Amino acid sequence: MSMDASIPPALRRLIRATVAWLNSWWRLLQFAVQMLPLAFSPASYRGANRNLLAGHIVRDTAPNLAWYGVLSALVSLVLIRIVVVTSQSYGLSRFALEMVVRVLVLELIPLTAAAFVALRTTLPAGLEFSQSRNSAANTSDEELRQEFFPRVAAGVFAVWMLAAVSCVMTLVLAYLSMYGFTPWALPGYTRVVGQVFNPAVALILVLKIVFFSFAVGLIPMASSFYFSSSYRAKVTHGLYDMVRLFAVMLLIEIASLMGNYY
């Protein structure tokens, strides 16, 4: 009697699922390690490679920036108004600006920017690109540089750009909503914002956006690099990538909350 036959079927399935889960994370780490030297290689930014990279960055960033900018401005105005009215009704007007900055700029905008880029760009692009490939076998360094790195870099840059522009726009809208078109409130406004953005909080915000961008750029393209050419398999992995990506984003968000408030 073999050892495998002595293991209950449920336990065997659990073991296979655990091994597959660990293997998928190991492959993601390997893919990230392959992308890292390309990011620091001057050859990735020269000649035809530079044009490929610029094209992907523009295609992934410009449409998302327009749509997300409009949606972010509308949602920010609504939330700012809700916070201001609520704080006034409870006699907490002096805390309204700090609440807006903490809720919108520190928490919601980076998370929604990463989710927006993932749903509109990297996840669909990763699935579409994977259907044009047969396998990861015999993938050359030049293919990594010309096909994979521009897509990864474009996803990373799109998250950075959307988050940065939306944070600045929200700070401007918060000032205009609370004080109107007057320069006299700027000293008090900058003092409150500066108190919120102490060095530790600013560092956590930057790290959160960076890790969000890495997850959004790397996870979909890692599946395109490794998995087979079966359409059904790639659709399944596309759904799995979505779950894994948002699980990673949730863990990053939890870590940032613990860093900011504990």
Automatic annotation (TrEMBL):
Superkingdom of source: Bacteria
Statement: the UniProt record of this protein carries the keyword Transmembrane helix: yes
Annotated transmembrane regions: 65-87, 99-119, 152-176, 196-221, 242-261
Presence of the UniProt keyword Transmembrane in the record: yes
GO CC terms of this entry: ATP-binding cassette (ABC) transporter complex
Protein name (Swiss-Prot/TrEMBL): ABC transporter permease
Keywords: Membrane, Transmembrane, Transmembrane helix
